[in-house]
Amino acid sequence: MDKLVINGGNPLSGCIEINGAKNAAVAIVPAAIMASKGTCTIDNIPDIEDVHCLERILESLGCNIIIGKNSVVIDSTSINNVNANTEDVRKMRASYYLIGALLGRFKKASVELPGGCPIGVRPIDQHIKGFEALGARVEIKHGCVTVEADRLIGTNIFFDVVTVGATINVMLAATLAEGVTTLENVAKEPHVVDVANFLNSMGANIKGAGTDIIRVVGVKELKGCSYSVIPDQIEAGTYMIAAAACGGEVTIENVIPKHLESISAKLIEIGAEVTENGDSITVKATGRLKGVNIKTQPYPGFPTDVQQPMSTLLTVAKGRSIINESIWESRLKHVDELKKMGANVKVEGRTAIIDGVDKLSGAVVKATDLRAGAAMVIAGLIAEGSTEVLSIEHIDRGYPNIEDKFKALGADIRRVSCSE
Ligand code: EPZ
């Protein structure tokens, strides 16, 4: 097992490039199994453990896969298995997209219940509600979700909560249903739109992704296509926050600035300068930043997935900041780690009250989940002295080459084996 060792205090400067979006890729790769003809060539795939996990799962279902550098070619014409029950399936959240994809194409599937980050209860009732509305029988037994339908028939579905996972999963199944499905109160995240665009490239007929209502006209079959995944909004947001927290000037390339508006707005409110230039964004910060209040919300609101990195920045901002985490009930576990570094934070339920301190001090801390890991890396970068971030397998699930990217910006950070 590895850890990251960081000597804090260096300002960041220079350029880095953002990779393809994790949360789009982890839906697009399973969606590729819906092609009954041809192969899917997918570019701008991030080199992260969650994607590798899915590639292994697809192979276990009988797909032929060629993995390139930041690309994958998936031939799913010879799938011979609709039971996804390997350790990899249990390990990650996005394996639940196999349910919608297999149900759409084969009208049946059996998929182990998904794992993922320990950030609170992660129900799938809205996924099940959608599959049932389309005509599937759904059963959960022995830790496995089994779905089966004689036919899938389009219908109207109104989600009780705005959910990325259920929006994408039910959209997958509806793509190959008979007739028209209308999904209401859907998630509008950029990755929802990206999955819809990918499915349309395969021959689907989906309109409205990115708005509150998605309309899917079912088609008989999908075929292979070539597609490039959008840049990662959350990876970009993390580096923007790191740049502001460390001070200096960083240009983040290969981004869609529109997807970053809520993060840019907060950074400007905090006192950083943010400049958009085509497909890049520059963050500059000098002097002490000031505290702000944040409430996480579905897109286009402030994303829960950068709440933890932002909370690190706020530990050294001037004055009081209040963070309200409205999406996940336990996404403030990293606060105990920040406190080891001298942060002054009080957690009350889903709210963190942060009183900015002058500086953090290096300590041995752990990544309690993926984005908490990024938060601890930023904490190490701004702290005085040396920080060791343990349990970085969480970080490797979602951030490609994190130490190389920070090193390129002037940080003193290295990966070492825990046995060293
Ligand atoms: C996706 O999770 C992301 N994961 C998460 O990112 C992200 O935090 C989340 O969306 C919100 O943006 C992936 O895309 C793989 P949801 P997902 O369904 O789809 C409730 C990261 O760091 N809900 O949008 O699982 C749920 O409890 C990860 O990259 C139901 O009540 O999240 C939550 O409060 C962590 N019933 C809210 O909806 C359901 O059936 C949003 O969940 C489904 C969800």
UniProtKB/TrEMBL annotation:
Which Gene Ontology terms of cellular component type are present? cytoplasm
* Coarse class of the protein's main subcellular location: cytoplasm
Q: Which GO terms describe its molecular function?
A: UDP-N-acetylglucosamine 1-carboxyvinyltransferase activity
Q: Is NAD there in the keyword field? A: no
What is the enzyme's class at the highest EC level?
Answer: transferase
What are the binding positions for UDP-N-acetyl-alpha-D-glucosamine in this chain?
R93, R122, P123, I124, D125, Q126, D305, I327
Q: Where is the active site?
A: C117
Where does this polypeptide localize? Cytoplasm
Instruction: Return one Gene Ontology term, BP aspect.
Output: cell division
Q: State the similarity comment.
A: Belongs to the EPSP synthase family. MurA subfamily.
Descriptive protein name:
UDP-N-acetylglucosamine 1-carboxyvinyltransferase
